[in-house]
Amino acid sequence: MAGARGAGRAAATGARPGKRPRGPEPEPEPEPEELSLAGAPAPGLQDGSDSGLSESEESVFSGLEDSGSDRSEDDPAESEDGVNSDEGHSGMEKTTGQQVQAGTPSPRTEAASVQGCEEYAEEDSSDEEDIRNTVGNVPLEWYDDFPHVGYDLDGRRIYKPLRTRDELDQFLDKMDNPDYWRTVQDRMTGHDVRLTDEQVALVRRLQRGQFGDGSFDPYEPAVDFFSGDLMIHPVTNRPADKRSFIPSLVEKEKVSRMVHAIKMGWIQPHRPRDRTPSFYDLWAQEDPDAVLGRHKMHVPAPKLALPGHAESYNPPPEYLPSEEERLAWQQQELGERKLNFLPRKFPSLRAVPAYGRFIQERFERCLDLYLCPRQRKMRVNVDPEDLIPKLPRPRDLQPFPTCQALVYRGHSDLVRCLSVSPDGQWLASGSDDGSVRLWEVVTARCMRTVPVGGVVRSVAWNPHPTICLVAVAVEDSVLLLNPALGDRLVVSGTDQLLSAFVPPEEPAVQPARWLEASEDERQGGLRLRICHGKPVTQVTWHGRGDYMAVVLAAAGHTQVLIHQLSRHRSQSPFRRSHGQVQRVAFHPLRPFLLVASQRSVRLYHLLRQELTKKLRPNCKWVSSLAVHPAGDNVICGSYDSKLVWFDLDLSCEPYRVLRHHKKALRAVAFHTRYPLFASGSDDGSIIVCHGMVYNDLLQNPLLVPVKVLRGHVLTRDLGVLDVAFHPTQPWVFSSGADGTVRLFT
């Protein structure tokens, strides 16, 4: 039935392609001549056949149910009635019947697909493909987050086709489908369109820079319409028009209309303005009878309070003071007394004497009215929530470390310091158990353990990527270790760099002694030993990896020493001391050295050898120091649980003081790539903050605390002793008094 009805409809409407039924058998590929580009009607609809439908009606029954339009399906009985209806509506109702059969498969549909397979092999369902997207001239990116891609001619949504194919399915389709190379996606409808041979040829001609029309010849001979010979007779000798010398009737009508408008007063002529100034009375709107009319903000004098029971000549007994209350009232000052008089009881009103302070109180009242200022306070109704600064949500500031990922166990005593290699693959930690351990970051495996025979105060990995050295501060010496991890070429190149040094014939007097390691020590990784004679508390590298600064726990101007690795030379940059030095740091970009004492941070220019700036943290004791990778901002931690942020371009005073920790801060650190900084404290927590520094100098840095990380166990009232960020990932390492190193990611 369905197949016969489809064949009859195709014959009645000029062999218009019919709806393709959904049967269990695979459909044949559509013919190239019956497909069109995006938005263009199919050729089968343009061959002059009269189907009895308008363009909008045709688009309604063009297979919108395949594109996911939410349209209720018709009843099969209505489709049967549509076959027997009159001639005027036969096209619409037949199409409706076909759509019902296409949307709901039935035995009749399957039988029709078997019977009419030859018919559908020759013609294509251009009704399905002719989905007009009437979205207009708007960007299709607006529909990225919606399930539809536009609207058809009747305003129904055109849903995107389901594309659940992964890369493997696309690859198999590319291998099996011979027309894969000529299949493109129509962005207006989301369907795949197979290009015909003519369209492929057109694309290839346009890619080669040729004309779109293949039959166009750009080199055909030109036709010379006019010869170059002088002619006797003109080409045209047309006489002049009659309107060129007769007054125009249209202009005459326009002028008559303007004259009529002027007569009626509709068009007013431009009159000259009156240049004489106009005067007005400034006080015209004032009330002349009001004495305080000009005082807009006049406040009337407050009235005196009405007398109470205590001022009565016969007060109640509870208002009468006792003898102790009377003595206490007499000993009070005048401003401390609640009442200016003592309540008394009289038998009658005639027995009340004159009030002794009457004249004085009247005089004070007159002074209040005359001298005391009164003003109306304009109270602004402000929501307290509006006074809180609008900070971004932490989820908008990701990535930052949120949870504990790994624990590095192996030390038997508290871990004072740690350092990460420049490539982020290895981690060095120093402990009070007299050893330096080298870990693999991603697996928490201890690669090497180097015993140094003393408490390790500081560990610093050389930041240069081609130098594999770790500086370790032990007692009064700085040990330079080659951990022999990573690239073998870098390890051997580091040994060659150290062995290339030739000592001078006349050694200069230096504040430190450079000693070569013995053979047994070289087997353990030791290469150089720098002896100072005083305990070393910190060692830090310059960004280029050739210089390092050392802090000594001694009084005097030799608290800070700078060593040069390539020349085995040491020098003391200062002539006098400015207090006990706590921390030093090199500026990442400029030749500056930051020296933190107990109460201040000084910024020295190394080339000019002068003091550039002195920062005042306003805290009791500075414990740690870190410099922003851009070099314009500095943070300091203190033992009185403050974290101070300095903007070097703004002021010598703190830009912001953060008091998030409850106990002393032990370490602070900046991330080299992400806008993050962290602080570790004796309360066992690491607070990670978002610190965005903008390139615009007029915009202040944005400081937002985003996460509190906990994991270390308090031991001997000590918590986190050192923190360090991973050089490339938003990870933070922490070492604690519980003998562990923890990684938070």
Short structural summary:
InterPro entries: BOP1/Erb1 (IPR028598), BOP1_N_dom (IPR012953), WD40/YVTN_repeat-like_dom_sf (IPR015943), WD40_repeat_CS (IPR019775), WD40_repeat_dom_sf (IPR036322), WD40_rpt (IPR001680). The protein has 745 residues and is α+β, with helices and mostly antiparallel strands.
Give the topology, please.
Elements (H helix, E strand, L loop, with lengths): L1 H11 L42 H6 L15 H8 L6 H14 L3 H9 L1 H6 L3 H4 L18 E4 L5 E3 L7 H10 L6 E3 L6 E3 L2 H11 L41 H16 L58 H9 L26 H14 L12 H4 L16 E6 L5 E6 L5 E6 L3 E6 L4 E7 L4 E6 L8 E5 L2 E5 L6 H12 L13 E4 L2 H5 L2 E6 L4 E6 L5 E6 L7 E5 L4 E3 L9 E6 L5 E6 L3 E5 L4 E6 L6 E6 L5 E6 L4 E5 L8 E3 L6 E6 L5 E6 L3 E8 L9 E9 L9 E6 L6 E5 L3 E5 L1
Antiparallel strand pairs: 1-2, 3-4, 5-33, 6-7, 7-8, 8-9, 10-11, 11-12, 12-14, 13-14, 15-16, 16-17, 17-18, 19-20, 20-21, 21-22, 23-24, 24-25, 25-26, 27-28, 28-29, 29-30, 31-32, 32-33
Helix pairs in contact: 1-4, 3-4
